[in-house]
Recover the amino acids of this structure.
């Protein structure tokens, strides 16, 4: 029996989204199913923004960054009639299944829709932050780490030429995955992450120690979610304030690199510069690893739809693609485990 499958991408965009859309569509079309793209994440299902997905629409999109469907941070549970309109559009379109490609927020909505409304939905884990539980890796993360590592490599040569401390602020929200992995790969001299916040004093001590060893330049990687932490116990989150929070209640982070650089320069006397990588980490073409992971996730999601196994998310465990309950993926943030940070710390100072 033919099925009508809806596909949406929600939350921050990320390299590999198009590879998932392609894989879901290819496998579903091969089964004789109809595939419809829902534009702009959950907003598209609330407002009725649809586009057919056929062979022509998905041709050539595998290496393309961003999402051909567009995205948003709309939370349909936030507005008075959001849920009602979403239900109505789902029915009018005659959808038999929905594939939601997203992170914590998008999949949180998918999990609720399944649990509370019995929606036939499956999830695919996307985010450069790699902070979703129940999967070893999300697609997009490898690309972000690659971009940040490349930036750190480039900053090394200019740091060395000028005898400077270079502070690199990377994304990752409230987890330090991008910071730790790019910091290890790029040979950072200090890495500051939200999960295990070393103090500003300790960071400065590491830099002084390094300079005493005869190195007159340093690379510091700081995760945007790191709270400036002091020996006195004082902590300060740097961001755009509560007014800039989204429909899921997330404050917009950013700016800690600048504040940290100021502290380092004042406390150590070493000339310091800051680079904020920002959305560059989410842009452009996915790495081969992310293309492959996204493709495997997409095929798995299409297979779950075919089997009628809903409320599940495609996940990577070891080298295997498996299905896990959506609610397990969003139950709590997957933070950087202490042993990963220990690996990074072996090279501090
Ligand atoms: O979740 C992905 C992410 O890039 C975070 O690392 C970052 O804090 C946030 O999105 C930025 O969001 P926006 O694109 O809305 O500025």
């Amino acid at each position: 029996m033919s099925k009508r499958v809806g596909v949406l991408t929600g939350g921050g965009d990320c390299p590999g989204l198009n590879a998932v859309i392609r894989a879901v569509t290819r496998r579903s079309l091969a089964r004789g199913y109809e595939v419809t793209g829902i534009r702009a994440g959950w907003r598209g299902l609330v407002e009725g923004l649809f586009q057919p997905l056929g062979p022509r629409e998905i041709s050539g999109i595998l290496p393309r960054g961003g999402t051909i469907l567009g995205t948003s941070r709309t939370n349909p549970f936030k507005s008075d009639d959001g849920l009602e309109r979403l239900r109505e559009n789902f029915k009018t379109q005659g959808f038999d299944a929905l594939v939601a490609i997203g992170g914590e927020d998008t999949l949180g909505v998918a999990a609720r829709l399944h649990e509370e409304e019995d929606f036939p939905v499956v999830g695919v884990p996307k985010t450069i932050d790699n902070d979703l539980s129940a999967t070893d890796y999300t697609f997009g993360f490898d690309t972000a780490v690659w971009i940040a590592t490349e930036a750190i490599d480039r900053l090394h040569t200019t740091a060395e030429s000028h005898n400077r401390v270079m502070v690199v602020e990377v994304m990752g929200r409230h987890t330090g995955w991008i910071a730790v992995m790019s910091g290890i790969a790029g040979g950072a001299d200090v890495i500051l992450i939200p999960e295990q916040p070393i103090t500003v004093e300790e960071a400065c001590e590491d830099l002084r120690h390094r300079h005493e060893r005869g190195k007159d330049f340093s690379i510091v990687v700081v995760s945007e979610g790191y709270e400036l932490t002091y020996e006195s116990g004082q902590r300060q989150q740097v961001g755009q304030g509560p007014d800039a929070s989204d429909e899921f209640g997330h404050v917009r982070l950013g700016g800690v690199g600048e504040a940290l650089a100021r502290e380092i320069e004042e406390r150590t006397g070493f000339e310091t510069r800051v680079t904020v990588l920002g959305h560059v980490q989410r842009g452009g073409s996915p790495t081969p690893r992310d293309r492959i992971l996204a493709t495997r996730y997409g095929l798995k999601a299409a297979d779950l739809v075919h089997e009628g196994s809903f409320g599940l998310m495609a996940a990577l465990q070891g080298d295997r693609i498996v299905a896990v309950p959506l609610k397990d993926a969003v139950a709590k943030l997957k933070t950087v485990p202490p042993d990963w940070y220990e690996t990074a710390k072996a090279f501090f100072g």
Remarks:
- The mean pLDDT is 97.
- The chain is about 40% helix and 20% strand.
- The radius of gyration is 22 Å.
- The pocket of 6-O-phosphono-beta-D-fructofuranose is lined by residues 12, 103, 127-129, 171-173, 224, 253, 282 (CB under 6 Å).
